[in-house]
Design brief:
66% helix, alpha+beta, four-stranded mixed beta sheet
Length: 166
Amino acid sequence: MKTNITVIKKYGNRRLYNTSTSQYITLEEVAALVRNGKQVRVVDANTGQDLTRVTLTQIIVEDAKGGPTGLPLELLRQLIVASDHAGREFVMWYLNSALNAYQKVQDSLQNGLRKVGSAVLPPLQVMQSSIQGGNADQKGSRREVAKRGSRIKKAAGQRKRRKATR
């Protein structure tokens, strides 16, 4: 199965061009594509050099500017310390494993919530159909309630007239 990769060209003036939509896009829009599960590949428009890693890192850096969210300071220090190939490879393997584990937990949580939601849905549907008057018994009950209500109103009106005549 062929994966659909969105190719984005990066120009010397730092503009990003989405070749799938034939439009210029922002770094935030690239981040949105990634967050929505799209595979992106960023290439230098002149040389064809792959800039995906640099661009995704730039997105992380830009996100970190907004507040204390980004990567933990100690992890960033360790990434700098692990500047040799083997150290960097281990850190990347570790991060990838941790993110995969996190994704599995998220997926199982979502599946659990879907199951709970589907178990809760039938009682909600029952309530909704009873409110909307789904079957003949319910319609008959509504008529009965309406009849009794009109009898109560008549009785109240008669009491008012009696009081007024006294």
